[in-house]
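hiii so my PI (J.) wants the whole complex modelled not just the main chain, which honestly fair. so below is everything: two entries, each one labled with what it is. i double checked the lines twice but i was tired so who knows lol
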Amino acid sequence: MNADNPIISIQKVHKSFGTFKALDDVSLNVDAGQKVVVIGPSGSGKSTLLRTINRLETISSGSIVVDGRDINDSASDINRIRAELGMVFQSFNLFRHKSVLDNLTLAPIKLKKTPRAQAEQHAMELLEKVGLVDKAESYPVQLSGGQQQRVAIARALAMNPKIMLFDEPTSALDPEMIGEVLEVMVTLAREGMTMVVVTHEMGFAREVADSVVFMDEGKIVEVAPPDRFFDNPEHKRTQRFLEQIL
Amino acid sequence: MRDKHVVIDVGDGAAIPDPEDKGLFTAWRISFFGTLGIIAYLLIFRPDPYLDIIKFLPDGIVVTFQVTFASIGLALVLGLIAGLGRISKNTFFNLVASTYIEVIRGIPLLVQLFYIYFALGHLVRVPDMVAAIVAMGFCYGAYMGEVFRAGILSIDDGQTEASLSLGFNRSQTMRYVILPQAWRIILPPVGNEFIALLKDTSLVSIIAVSDILRRGREFASESFLYFETYTMIALIYLVITLILSKILSNVEHRLSHYERR
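here's the output for the full assembly
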């Protein structure tokens, strides 16, 4: 897929909560295989933007096309589109009543009708990938935050998504656990997964991103490759933000 | 968020014993073994009339349980529908459920019992037992609806979002993710309602259903042993509710396995 045919195409999207403009004329394209990192101060609309991509947030106007399908068109099957968009949340949101293995196999078994044995085998491969094979039979409450988030990534991958969305995946973690989650994400990026990541981890952005998006007050202020973004930002607002956090 | 514990206290049934309470003298043990002791004492040292009374009651106990189980089954189904209706964004469904709950909760159970018994009697000829079950089921369904609603709403929105993001639709999310977790939270109040319902089935004795209380009244009116009969009836109700609350406490403990570290 080339630059003329992005896998995610966000065009002139507006979203308001009452009089508050959460997204104000936002346009952004993501190509297949690209890693886009979205940063910005809290309340800038970056999480809202991410959540509009799988329609967890509806938009007021504009269009969002994912893999050739307009997600807000009533003719599109949103559930089918969501199955191709893996999502990782700040608060993990593992199914508390299910073991780690069952968290991973629930959707493939129920939605894709994958035979249990096959789903479990795939799940174990994914747990191996995130380094948690020995936790397969544990319940989420028995895991640390970092472990839960790695399971959450594996759960999203169990549906073989084309795109992974990360909504501040390390913000709820104790500092010593951030590394283990980022490591999994870096591996995933190296394997060529298309990723949109909302994060405050600038080291990750610099290492992994093809493109860094800076948002403020519901608008995209600047989009640039990481070296130019961090070393030579164009906009005053971006410069000020980077000075504050770096 | 991980440590969120939700307690819904409807408090109408018997107290559910705490499974973690390892003391020798718990309220449950004192009540249960005390009651058994009194029954044993009466049967051994005052077999006349207590042995005669207790021999007369088993048919009534069976009927009480039949009414209780059938009513709770109906109440759970109605409660689930009413609870889902109360949180539904569909205005019509929501209004129907809310109105049902408002109306039913505003009428005393005994009045509902009479009303359904006689109203149904006018329209169709139904057995007394069916009228009793319909009335009890509809009444408790309204209370159960509120329990279901609270239980469902107590589950973190993140669970719904995670489920939707995997591709589950709303009803699959409810079925596979929300209800299995809500069930754990609503089990204590549902258990309470169950025990409260069992006690309230004593009201059906008024509409010619031969439950424990009606059997007792029949015995008392023939023998004039009112005090002795009602003593035995109270003790039997107490033994039953204490056993049930113990069972519920154990089930609850087992269901909570995924909350334990």
